[in-house]
């Protein structure tokens, strides 16, 4: 974790930003026999992070399968990044009826399609939702 993350997130929160984590978690579906263990592990990691940064953060986890019911069909799941489903769900049902200021909204993610990245889901998620995109190493640079 970048050392400046807690201060940066606290500053954003103090300036009226809502902080939200959107994450895909394929392990929850992959480990059907230990699903609860996978869920508890993911929630534990997220809770530890939120406790470290000391700001309220809303979390959305896409962990299901596609329409066929197979984990290999992630593209069909409208809630998995890069699909816009998690954002749309948050905007429509979990934002207390507040209109989101898209000019001030942005997304920070590490999956930007670079050679070293595991995917391009984050940058495509930002594009699909009309959000400015930042890489963590740029956004959280000291």
Automatic annotation (TrEMBL):
Record lineage: Eukaryota, Viridiplantae, Streptophyta, Embryophyta, Tracheophyta
Signal sequence, start to end: none
GO molecular function: ATP-dependent polydeoxyribonucleotide 5'-hydroxyl-kinase activity; double-stranded DNA binding; polynucleotide 3'-phosphatase activity
Organism whose genome encodes this protein: Pisum sativum
Any single biological process term in GO: DNA repair
Entry protein name: Uncharacterized protein
